[in-house]
Each structure stands twice: as C-alpha cells, then as structure tokens.
C-alpha cells in the first residue's frame, strides 16, 4: 500500500470486477474497515482497476487478478512465436519434450492442444515462466 504525505494509505486498486463467483461477501468492523471475500470456482474471473495505469490512453486500467482455468485456452500462435524467439525448429522442440513432430505441428497449428504433461515440458524447453504466456482468456 502506498501512503500520502501524512502516512495515510492510498488505495491502489480502486475497483474490482468479478464474474461467475460462487459467493461474494464483505466483513466490516466497527471502524468501517472491511475485507472483500470471493469464493471462486472453475469459471470465475476477477479484475482489479488500477488508478495508476502506465498507458496514457487508460487501456491498462483493468488488470487480471484471477482467471479460472476453465476460462483459459491454449494459444497456438503464441507457441509458434515463442519457439521462433528461442530459435528452435519444430523437430528440435518435439525431440526435447518426447513428442512426435507431427503432434507438435498440430499444437502449433491449433488442431489439437497439449495435455498438462506436455505443457509443462514445453514451458521448460521454451523458457516459458508463466502459463499466461501461452494461454488466452476465452470470451465469457
């Protein structure tokens, strides 16, 4: 939390947007300080509104705080881009993760998606640190 010149806290997140939560509730004490609780499920999405966005046009105001796994899908275009960034061929990646090159080609073309075992191997071989680098949020 950032504070003003008097040491009082300045809110960083000035808004929250929540979709498909199982339950949302707030506990407020006698000093009117409260805590927001969200019971998330496999289709919950939560965004925070940041009052200090870096982009002048305000396009970065809403940040994903939590996106449930069921709302994400594999981004085959990102996979191809990352492989090229790492200067590897499809054959080299397939060999490194123990998959057939044809299987890998189907992932990159979007015809099929890797299971979680292969996804972890891909992340290791291609130096992918966050799942969001190779996933995208589905429309909901």
Describe this structure in a few short sentences.
This protein is α+β, with helices and mostly antiparallel strands.
Task: Detail the topology: elements first, then pairings.
Blueprint: E1 2-3, E2 9-10, E3 13-19, E4 23-28, E5 34-39, E6 45-50, E7 62-67, E8 72-74, H1 76-85, H2 90-97, H3 101-109, H4 116-125, E9 135-137
Antiparallel strand pairs: 1-2, 3-6, 4-5, 6-7, 8-9
Helix pairs in contact: 2-3
InterPro entries: Cro/C1-type_HTH, Lambda_DNA-bd_dom_sf
Protein name: HTH cro/C1-type domain-containing protein
Organism: Paenibacillus terrae
List keywords for this structure.
two-stranded antiparallel sheet; single chain; 140 residues; 434 Repressor (Amino-terminal Domain); elongated; 29% strand; 2 domains; 9 strands; 26% helix; three-stranded antiparallel β-sheet; alpha+beta
Question: Explain this structure to me?
Answer:
GO terms for molecular function: DNA binding. Pfam families: HTH_3. The chain has 140 residues and is of the alpha+beta class. 26% of the residues lie in helices and 29% in strands. The protein folds into 2 domains: 2-67, no CATH class; 72-137, lambda repressor-like DNA-binding domains (434 Repressor (Amino-terminal Domain), Orthogonal Bundle). It has helices at 76-85, 90-97, 101-109, 116-125, and strands spanning 2-3, 9-10, 13-19, 23-28, 34-39, 45-50, 62-67, 72-74, 135-137. Strand 1 (2-3) and strand 2 form a beta hairpin. The two termini are 31 Å apart. The mean pLDDT is 83.
């Amino acid at each position: 939390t950032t504070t003003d010149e008097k040491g009082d806290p300045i809110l960083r997140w000035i808004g929250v947007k929540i979709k498909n939560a199982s339950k949302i509730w707030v506990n407020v004490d006698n000093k009117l300080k409260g805590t927001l609780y969200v019971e998330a499920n496999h289709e919950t999405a939560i965004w925070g509104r940041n009052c200090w966005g870096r982009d002048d046009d305000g396009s970065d105001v809403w940040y994903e705080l939590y996106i449930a796994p069921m709302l994400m899908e594999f981004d085959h275009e990102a996979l191809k881009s990352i492989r090229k960034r790492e200067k590897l061929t499809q054959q080299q990646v397939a060999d490194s993760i123990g998959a057939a090159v044809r299987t890998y080609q189907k992932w990159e073309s979007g015809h099929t998606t890797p299971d979680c075992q292969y996804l972890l191997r891909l992340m290791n071989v291609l130096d992918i640190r966050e799942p969001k680098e190779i996933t995208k949020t589905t429309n909901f």
